[in-house]
Write a structure and sequence with these properties.
The protein has about 210 residues and is of the alpha/beta class. It is built from 8 helices and 8 strands, in the order E-H-E-H-E-H-E-H-E-H-E-H-E-H-E-H. Strands 1-2-3-4-5-6-7-8 form an 8-stranded parallel β-barrel, surrounded by 4 helices. One of its GO terms (biological process) is thiamine diphosphate biosynthetic process. Its cofactor is Mg(2+).
Length: about 210
C-alpha cells in the first residue's frame, strides 16, 4: 500500500491497557468510524505471535475502509500478519533491515526526535517520519525532551517526507500541529480508553479545531 499524506491526519496508536474495557479491536472499529485515518498496533508486552494474531483481527476490521494498519517495532509481525507496514524507533534496528524485510510495497515509518536524526533520513528508504515528542506523555515513559510546537515546525522543515506529530497530543492541538507543517498527529489516550472512541475521534478537526492546508 502506497502511503497517502492524508492517511497521517489522525493516526491512532493503540494501548492494550487503556483499551481494556472495550478491547483493542472494538476501540479501533469505533475510532475509525469517528474519523481515524491510520492505526498503529503497539503492544510492548506481547509476543510476536500475539501481535500477529491481533494484527490479523485488526486487518479484518479495517478491510474496505482504506485505513492502513502499521505494527510498532515488530517488523516480523507486520510481515507475518500481512499488515500495511511497520513503524520503528531509533533503537529498534536499522531501517535498511526493516525495509528489506517489508519489501518495497509496505509502509515504513521512523521516529525522529532531532533535526540531526531527521537529516540522516535523506538516504533512507522510509515513507514517513514520526516527529516529537511535542509534549510530555505518560504513554511512553522513556521519551526524549519535548520539542514544543516551535520545535515540531523545525523538524518538519528539515524533511520533504510526510510527517506526523507524536507526544501528548489531543483534539485541542490539531490545528496547531497542521499549522506547524505536519501532515497529522498521533494520539493514544485521547481516543484509547475514552468512553466513546468514535466521539473522541470525531472531536478532532471539527470546525472549532480545523485549519486550512
Amino acid at each position: 500500500m502506497a502511503l497517502r499524506r492524508e492517511a497521517l491526519r489522525l493516526y491512532l496508536v493503540t494501548d492494550p491497557v487503556l483499551c481494556a474495557d472495550l478491547g483493542v479491536v472494538e476501540t479501533v472499529r469505533r475510532a475509525v468510524a469517528g474519523g481515524v485515518t491510520m492505526v498503529q498496533l503497539r503492544d510492548k508486552q506481547a509476543s510476536t505471535q500475539e501481535r500477529v494474531s491481533l494484527a490479523r483481527a485488526l486487518m479484518q476490521v479495517l478491510d474496505g475502509t482504506g485505513v492502513p494498519l502499521i505494527v510498532n517495532d515488530d517488523v516480523d509481525a507486520a510481515v507475518a500478519a500481512s499488515a500495511d507496514g511497520a513503524h520503528i524507533g531509533q533503537s529498534d534496528g536499522a531501517p535498511e533491515r526493516a525495509r528489506a524485510l517489508l519489501g518495497p510495497d509496505r509502509i515504513l515509518g521512523l521516529s525522529c526526535e532531532t533535526t540531526e536524526r531527521v537529516a540522516a533520513t535523506r538516504n533512507l528508504d522510509v515513507d514517513y517520519l514520526g516527529l516529537g515528542p511535542v509534549f510530555a506523555t505518560g504513554t511512553k515513559a522513556d521519551h526524549e525532551q519535548p520539542t514544543g510546537l516551535a520545535g515540531l515546525a523545525a523538524l518538519v522543515a528539515a524533511t520533504d517526507l510526510p510527517t506526523v506529530a507524536i507526544g501528548g497530543l489531543n483534539a485541542r492541538h490539531g490545528a496547531d500541529v497542521l499549522a506547524a507543517g505536519a501532515d497529522g498527529l498521533c494520539v493514544v489516550s485521547a481516543i484509547c480508553g475514552q468512553p466513546d472512541p468514535r466521539a473522541a475521534a470525531a472531536s478532532f478537526f471539527t470546525d472549532r479545531h480545523e485549519v486550512s492546508r
